[in-house]
Every structure is written in C-alpha cells, then in structure tokens.
Amino acid sequence: MSRHRGAGSTSGLHKQLEALDTVRGLAEGRLPDENVQDLFGVLDRASSRRSLSADHTVIGIFGPTGSGKSSLINALSGTEVARVAARRPTTSKPLAVVWGAAGSGPLLDWLEVDERHEMPADSALLGADTGGLILLDLPDFDSTAAAHRTIVERMSGQVDVLLWVVDPQKYADAALHHDFLAPLASHGAVTLVALNQADRLSGRQQEQVTASLSGILAEEGLRGVRVFPVSARTRDGLEDLAGAIRQIAGRKQAANARLAADVAAASSQLAPFVGPEDLPVPGKAAQADLSTRLAAAAGVDAVVDAVVRSYRRDAHAATGWPVTRWLGSFRSDPLRRLNLRRSDVDAALRRTSMPAGAPAQRARVDQALRTFADTAAGSAVEPWRSAIRSAARATVPTLLDGLDQALAGTNLDTGRRSWWWPLVGLLQWLALAALVVGIGWLGVMAAMGFLQFDVPDAPSIEGFPVPTLLIAGGVAAGILLAILASVIARFAAKARGRKARRRLRAACAKVAESVVAQPVSAEIRRYNDFRAALETAGRAK
C-alpha cells in the first residue's frame, strides 16, 4: 500500500495519485532508476502535503536579485515583516507571513520555515476572507550563495502556488525561464507573475513589457498565466494582485491543483516511454510460428526420421523373408540411439541423447525467440522493447531442457506393432515351409535314386512337378511378400512419421506457450497496464 493512500480522498487527484503509484510499481526494473526515483519523490511530497493542513494555501514568492520580493510582501501584508536593504541578497532564509495560524505549524515544519509572522485577520489588502493563507518570502534564485538556490529549488517543488516577481530589467532572464518557468510549464493553474517596479515604466512601456513577458510565458507552455504590473513603492496594481491571491486562498483548492500538476508533469516526463497504442498479446499465428521454429531447433525432424527408419526396421524384422530377416538385427535401432525406446524411466525424467545446447541449436532457438519477441513488441519503444525481448530470452536454459523433455516424453508408439505384420509374417513362414517341403521332397527322391531304390514319379500339375512348384512358389512368394511388405512399410512409416511429427510439435507448442509466450504476454500486459495508468495519471481532473 502506497503512503499517499491514507488520505481517503475520492477526488480526481486521488485517482491520479493511485495511477501514478501503479506507474511507479510497473516502471521498477524497466525504466531508468532516475525516472523511478522522480516518481517516488512526487508521491512522497503528495503524501506529506495531503497529510497536512488542507485549510492553508502556501504561496511562495520567487524572484531574482533586486526584483523587490521583500518589498512586495511588505506591501501586501501592510507591515514591515520582511527586511529590505540595499545589500544583496537581503533574504537568506524563508520567511512566512501567516493569516490564520491555527494548524499551520506542522505544514511550516515540513516546509522547514522557522521564521513566522502571524497576521491579524483584518490586516491590509489580504486581511478579509484570507484565513489559511501563508506567504513565503524566499531567497533570490540567482544568489551567489549556493544554499539560497537549494532552498528555492526545494520550495518550488513544495509550495501550493508559485508567485514569480520580476522587474522590467530582468523579466526575460534566461536562468529564470530555463531553470524554473519552462520546467514548470504544466503548473500554469498555480502560477502567478508580478511585474514589480512597473512605476518606472510609462503606460505604453508597461503594456509592451507586459505583452512581451506574456508572450515568453506562452512560448514556455504557461499560456494563460496572468501578469500583474505592480509597484510595491506606489502600491499601483496591488489590489488586482491581492484580489487574485484572496480568490486562490478562498477556494482552498490550490494544494490539490499543485499536486495534480506535479502528477501531470511527472506523467509527461514518461511519455517517451510509451507507444501510440496498446500491444496485443501474441496470437495463435505468432505462437504457431514460434512453436514450429522451436520444434525444428529441438530436432523434431531428426526424431521423425528416426521414427520412420525404426518402423521400417521393425517391419522388416516382422515381415521380411525369414531366411534373411535376421540380418536386420545387426542394424541398430535409430530410436534407441536417441534414447527414445526406454519405458523404465518416468516421463518427467526422460531425456534424449541428442546434444543439448549445441551452438547450432542455440542459434536457431535465439533466432526463433528474436523473431517472436520483435513481432510481439510491435510499436513498443525502449526500454519496453528490450524488456519484451528479455522476457523471451530469459528462459533459454529452461526452454532447451523443456524441449528435450517434450521430445523424450512424447508417445511415439514405439512399442506398437502394426496389424498387418503378423499376417504377412505368417504368409512368409508358409512360403518358407513350401520351399522347405519342396526341397525336402526333391532331396528324398534324389537320395532314393542314389541308393538304387525305385523312385516314384512326383505328382505334377500342368506338367510341372509339385516339389519344383513348391520350391519355386516358396521362393517367389517369399520375395514378393518381402517386396510388398517393404512398400507397405514405407507408406506406413511415413504415416507414423506424420503422426509423430504432429505429437512432437504439439509437445513443443506446450513448452513454447508456457516458457516463452506466457512470460512475453505478461510483459506486454505490464506495458499496457503501464500505458493505461500513465494516461490516467496525466489526465488532470
């Protein structure tokens, strides 16, 4: 739970802060550390300010040396609360002028303002309806004392309203505009500008300088900020400025407006880190392409080839000519060489004997992951594009092992015999039996003739002796059956190979989905959540 959530507000500001806190959480580990720390700073200041007095409006009076800040605060308060002197800088530490002191102590402690002057409720220009107003007289931002600038930089990030006091000579000062006003371009709603010492200008000159200053402010993004020509010495224009201050203090919305501007500014700083649209999570086509590439890298083709050759080897052993089929036992089983014949090991522990993590395999896996990640990254910009790539590549060792396990654990029907093998095998044995009977018959007749026995004529069919027909038929049938079985085995082996390929690819697809696609999808959802939260945080209510 973030610290700013204790305020219990249901306002638009609360939603902005909640969104910015979400942005911070999603940005950690992705965006540069300095950007994340800036978000912490904004959230911390918001938490602190919202825990302090909401009835007080803090207006910081900023300006360069000699602009008359102290004289102006004296004129507005109607008393000499701020020291005015020719020596510069006059103000060395913050001075608070407070209307309605009750409850202001902790707020001023947070602002680190020790010198405080409490004003009566009916004092001078700001006496009426300004209960809960704090004016801060601050050191010159261009002071030669480094501590003074440090105070100004801190206060410019803490006060509710920024009142910039310039004079006709320094109103276009580069340090003022480049270092302070331009970076606070999103804070126009809580910015006032007083052109002090306006009594030194003629009416026409005053109009020209005011118009010039307004133009510079508009160029810096502070369009609409009102410039008040005033003179602390003659009090010209003070009523208009005091009226604007009274109006701001009376609304008691400046603190929230300031914090909303801070959140919007912090959000705009992160705008370069998001693309123009949300990213879709990888679809079926992208995942199918990934699984196909990974299957190829894992060696599915080699396994399928082994399945085909192993089937043909087993088919020959079951259906080949019995006289020569034993020769096939000298050929090693391709599946056994890949360690894919074992059934005595738990499926979760099985591994193939193919070399895991070989350079060629890693190169193909890397290429598959890079293609998938680049497609998934779409319009994402850095560092999110790199984060999506990292999500894909972070699991390479797990992926390689998972793919190998998927191959080893896939049911390849290695122990299943085809239905036609016993039939052809039986026919082969019958053919061999006919051959043996024919040879035996002729052998007996030859032996009888050798021993001078009367040899009866062998029965014949169409003039061909039956023993000869048995021999010829047995040989021919055996050869024809072997050829036929080989042809059938070739087609059946291809069919089993296709089936094995489907199963192997499905197994690889599951690994690709769980090990690669899910982390990449999670990173894309994180990016989309970051983008949505950033949009909400930057949408001032």
Automatic annotation (TrEMBL):
<dbReference type="InterPro" id="IPR027417">
    <property type="entry name" value="P-loop_NTPase"/>
</dbReference>
<feature type="domain" description="G">
    <location>
        <begin position="59"/>
        <end position="173"/>
    </location>
</feature>
<dbReference type="Pfam" id="PF01926">
    <property type="entry name" value="MMR_HSR1"/>
</dbReference>
<dbReference type="GO" id="GO:0000028">
    <property type="term" value="P:ribosomal small subunit assembly"/>
</dbReference>
<dbReference type="GO" id="GO:0043024">
    <property type="term" value="F:ribosomal small subunit binding"/>
</dbReference>
<feature type="transmembrane region" description="Helical">
    <location>
        <begin position="426"/>
        <end position="450"/>
    </location>
</feature>
<dbReference type="InterPro" id="IPR005662">
    <property type="entry name" value="GTPase_Era-like"/>
</dbReference>
<keyword id="KW-0812">Transmembrane</keyword>
<protein>
    <submittedName>
        <fullName>ABC transporter</fullName>
    </submittedName>
</protein>
<feature type="transmembrane region" description="Helical">
    <location>
        <begin position="470"/>
        <end position="493"/>
    </location>
</feature>
<dbReference type="GO" id="GO:0019843">
    <property type="term" value="F:rRNA binding"/>
</dbReference>
<keyword id="KW-0472">Membrane</keyword>
<dbReference type="GO" id="GO:0005829">
    <property type="term" value="C:cytosol"/>
</dbReference>
<dbReference type="InterPro" id="IPR006073">
    <property type="entry name" value="GTP-bd"/>
</dbReference>
<dbReference type="GO" id="GO:0005525">
    <property type="term" value="F:GTP binding"/>
</dbReference>
<keyword id="KW-1133">Transmembrane helix</keyword>
